[in-house]
Design brief:
It is built from 14 helices and 14 strands. By secondary structure, the protein is an alpha/beta fold.
Amino acid sequence: MGLNETPSANRPHIAFFGRRNAGKSSLVNAVTGQNLALVSSVKGTTTDPVYKAMELLPLGPVVIIDTPGFDDEGELGEMRVEKTKQVLNKTDIAVLVLDGEIPTDTTLPIEDEIINLFKFKNIPYIAVLNKIDLIKPHTETRRHGEHRENNEEQLCAFASLREKNGNNFLSVSAKTGFDIDLLKEKIASLAQTNEPQRRLVADLLKPNDFVILVIPIDKAAPKGRLILPQQQVIRDILETGCAAITVRESELHQLLLNMPITEKKPALVITDSQVFALVSQLVPQEIPLTSFSILFARYKGFLETAIESVTSLDNLKDGEKVLICEGCTHHRQCDDIGTFKIPGMIKNYTKKEINFSFCSGGDFPSDLSIYKLIIHCGCCMLNERGMLYRQSLAKKQNIPLTNYGIVIAHITGILKRSIEVFKLA
């Protein structure tokens, strides 16, 4: 991903839900103007959620999600429905697609169930009656803004849903393009654009400050590029009118010696958590120090929770279980931080035989009761709603949830120093 691209985790996630063959995939293609989703008249064509990062005007950078039908059947169908329900946990804006070919005397329990899930999870949504071209002829040359209720007045099957959802109900045709532009405008209107934008590090800096970023380049580092958290922090520093100086831990000492520290000190040093202990020894105490992972814990809204929860490490007993989670999927190496380094550090620190479990990507267990502690990555690949869902699930089950960087800082004895820059109450 280039520095100019908006990361998927920072894009509104717009998901399309509904029955099989309601036209979800066709509507996705119509809204995006691309053939993103496979379309067929055969029920159950979409068997897994399909994600696509793209630009959607007038909203901007988004992630579009096409989902399997909520009415899928059989053992495999139940698994697909469960996958669809998991998508709800990361959905910022939902589109419920209703099939215009449903007979007029049909009740809509599935649609009611989906809407109740939207409301329970507080997801902004719009209900869309698709295939309007099959219900009643309409004039597609009507000017934008004219009254659009004429088609819907005679759609008795959907009267109750229309009444319940008011302005959040719209009739469209994916086939002819009828009112697709209006649908895109309504989707954009549901985006939470009035919330203040959180920053990774910019609020800790002043224009013309300079920041040192310590980035190890070892065999675990991706070839030819920086990882996403490093890219995002650099971009945020540059947008603030500050300078970002990147260095490996092996050259940090010489860099500090060559800098006129007494004239202008670095406003902040940000390090990869894996070299926290070494960097803490090299950086003078008067210079603020933190890690990429800790910055992301704050950015995703669970820094204080992570700090409170990390003390659970000190109370672990032999045989107890700890869950280590990553928000992305990648090829694991023999010295992977999540599956190798952190478990090793915890065992050395606690002197206990801890049982570790691991999950990655979209997988996250709903039953957390068997765990004494959850340790999460910086979650740069999870959107805010996805991370909030995991936090709320852990909180409801009284399972402490902390973060890679917080754990490493606690174990190495520098947690207090690594969070001083945030001036927590």
